[in-house]
Amino acid sequence: MIFVLMSFIFLVNPNNNKLKMNKIHMVDLHGQYLKIKDEVDAAIAGVLDSCAFINGPEVKEFQRELEEYLGVKHVIPCGNGTDALQIAMMALNLQPGDEVITADFTYAATAEVIALLKLKPVLVDVYKDNFSINPRAVEAAITDKTVAIVPVHLFGQCVDMESIMDIAKRHNLYVIEDVAQAIGAEYTFSDGTVKKAGTIGTIGTTSFFPSKNLGAYGDGGAIYTDDDELAKKLKMIANHGQSVQYYHDKIGVNSRLDSIQAAILRIKLTHLNEYAKARQEVAAYYDNVLGQYPSIVIPELCNYTTHVYHQYTLQIVNADRNELRKFLADKGIPSMIYYPLPLHVQKAYLDPRYKDGDFPVTEELCKTVLSLPIHTEMTKDQLDYIINSVLEFVKPKFLG
Ligand SMILES: Cc1ncc(COP(=O)(O)O)c(C=O)c1O
Fold it and tell me: Distance from the CA of 83 to the center of ligand 1, in angstroms?
């Protein structure tokens, strides 16, 4: 009863009408769980009953079902998306000092793993309208020490992979796709071939963090590849460097997806396309209205990729983004800034090679981006309320 009372809020919309609606979340994990509760509860009970907590049949089945969904030969489940990146780089035998190119505008995990392995993160700028790594900047950053490119399919749509793969081929580089935010997105090549994000480069890595589009109820991750030999290495490294128990051929890590998470993910995988559709509908609803206002730049949808809208990210250009965020918070509307700082000015990644102004697009985006709530359970009332509230703030400013 307490929960029911707390989960509703009374809000006053810009027309001064009182609205009763569910509390607005950036992502509504509870609402989504309620719709699959019976299935999920039974699956968890099944694992408890079997006591096959580690590497049980649920993990193997999930692995097989994800391979089928992605159209990839090998999926190696692991502990989280950061481990997935680390295991991928370990399996490619990258050596200390080797340069790995990635975007300045991304979640830190991507660069963190490069630095942790004593490789050299080489940062490059992104496209302003779709936030994706700029292939021209990638090519300009290549030196004789470059060994790999890590394109991040940020916010849910694919990077321009045809250009990235062309550069990688010409310079003999590995491509590790970071798909943490874009599982299920599809890339269409100019010859019409369609591939899922993460199945185009040498290796793809993803995260099942609860708020991700395919989110577990704890941590989880996976690595994908079509290469049989590489798959063996990835599996071995994720398992203490052993392929036969107690015989350790390589220094590895301990990174496992547990059976309870796998059982939950199996159920959620069957809903993944419908989850993407729900997010796309929310984005289209936002776009339709917000796209008409010059103070707001809506996210560009590129013609070579589908967008699964892990985030719906605006650029607020002629109004104060931080004030808008406060204004929305006062009305019970959460929003997030992904990301407030470019990587090259984060304390952990300061490097004398880089200075202010080196990545003008990323630097500008960090000042203007604002992500609005987007998830699978949003209602029209909630969307109208959010849109009207954004416009209430933005409209007078651009009229005046
Ligand atoms: C782009 C990107 N890469 C990697 C990760 C790391 O995933 P995890 O939190 O599962 O380690 C995340 C998680 O937020 C991410 O957004």
Answer: 9
